[in-house]
Structures are given as C-alpha cells and as structure tokens.
Amino acid sequence: MSFGNGLLLRVATRWISGTDLDSAIADAKRANSRGFGAVLNYLGEDVTDSKVADRHTEQYLKLQGAIASSGVEGFVSVKLTQFGLASDEAGARNRLESIAESAERLHQLLWVDMEGSASTQKTIEIYSDLLSRHKGVGLALQAYMRRSRDDLKLLLGSGARIRLVKGAYREPSDVVYPSRREVSQNFSSLMRMLFDGGDNFAIGTHDSKLIEEAEKLADSKHVEFRFEMLKGIRNELKGELVGSGYRLSEYLPYGEEWYAYSRRRLSEHPSNVLLLVRSLI
Q1: Helix (H) or strand (E) holding 38
Q2: Same domain membership, residue 200 and residue 63
Q3: H or E segment at 273?
Q4: In the chain, what is the greatest distance between 2 CA atoms, to the nearest angstrom?
Q5: Which is more confidently placed, 225 or 222?
Q6: Residue numbers of the domain that contains 157
Q7: For 27-64, b where at least 16 C-beta lie within 10 A, e where not — what string?
Q8: Do residue 193 and residue 151 come from a single domain?
Q9: Confidence bin at 276 (pLDDT 50/70/90)
Q10: Are 216 and 272 found together in one domain?
Q11: Same structural domain, 272 and 208
Q12: Range in 106-120, 145-159, 212-226, 253-267 the model is least confident about
C-alpha cells in the first residue's frame, strides 16, 4: 500500500469499519454500545467473475454467522451486482437466496441496496420474487429517481419493507431529479407515503429538515420505523435521536474495496477533506 493510500485509510476509518470482518464486528459492537443498531455491508459492486461473486456470498454468510455468535444487534445489506447480476442473473438470484435463507434461519433482517438505474428494474423484480418466500427482507428506494413514486406504490401493495434514501449515483436528468430541492421534495412525498401505508421501514437521511418532518409524522401516524445514517456522519444528531426514543441504525461498510467508497465520502462532504489535510500536519 502506498503512503497516500495508507494515509487515506487512516482518515477513512471515519466512514468504514476497517478492511476485515473482525473489524466490522468490533465496530458494530461500538455502535450497539451507543444505542445504535448496525447495518453491515461488505464493499464491492459490478462483479462479473463468478468466483469473486461466490467469495462475496461466502463473506456475507460468515458475517451473518458472526453477527449471531457475537450477539450484535444488526444485519447485513447487500448489492446484487456483488453477486454477478450483470453477467449471470440466475447465479445472482441463487446467491441472494442463500443469504436470505441464512438470515431467516438466524432471525435476522436482510436489506437489498439499490444501485444505478441500469439495474433498478431487475433489482425490484428479484426483490419482489424473494419477498414472496422470505418476509424479513427489505429494499432501498432512491428519492432522486423519477420512477420511485410509482415503484413505491407497487411495493407497498405487496408488503415490502422499504429503506428510503436520497441516492448518490451519477445519472442523467431524465432519470433523476437534478436539483437538491427537487430530490428533497420527492423524499418528503415518498416519506409521507411510507408513514401512511408502510410499516417497519427505514428513513435513511442526514437532512435535518427531513428528519424533523419524520418526527412530526411519527407523532401522528404511530408506525414502526427507524432512522438509518452512515458511519461517521452527524454523530451528535444520532445520539439525540436515540435519546429521544427513536430507533436508529448505523450503516457500517467494510472490506478491501474501501478506497472507492472513501473517495465518494470525500467528494460528497467537502468538509471531510479537512480531515485529510489535518492528518498531514
């Protein structure tokens, strides 16, 4: 590892839970000690090699077992392209099925992340098929996607468990809302739909206005939900929400592919660049 990468890894521990499973479990325990649940994700996407997809599957199965044996309050969240969706859909379905069966056996939830628009429809189809056999599975929906309102209507009708997030992939404006204002407005609209017709859903945002709106909706709707936030972002607010009686989970990514994820964190939050600069002094 080069000096530059080693330095970035030191800074990146703000957003990732290390590069191996043991580090991830230790971080999940720390999250639990603060009153947070843990959503663990093994980093990686866009896999086309079946052997790599199999290794990712094995890592998730080991991770689920470690969560159970260590007593961690948490569960895993997976990306379908980690399992070779683009090159081998049948194989990806089979790999996801094995992880869903493991989650059910261990009495754990399982989240399916949403990725770029090229895989949105297929991800929803695979998730819906999985939901017909495994009730404890959830799906992320991205508020910046123009199609998400229609998707949410259909998914709520099938009893889906939803994690609502804003979305972070670069997409053309005919696919996503291009402005922050429009994304926030759509997030608010979709969130109201969840509070009206959903249950056991997750609100994944660090936006204070949207969080305040969720709190007001919770006062009148009385449904089961939790907040979800990324590791290393808005830590003080997380504590305040838990102190107010809300359930909250921290999204804890880990793995050897930490570099690309960390670069995204730096680009999304310019203030994080200061951490990198300070570490040089």
Answers
A1: strand 37-42
A2: yes
A3: helix 272-279
A4: 55
A5: 225
A6: 21-254
A7: bbeebbeeebbbbbbbbbbebeeeeebeebbebbbebb
A8: yes
A9: very low
A10: no
A11: no
A12: 253-267
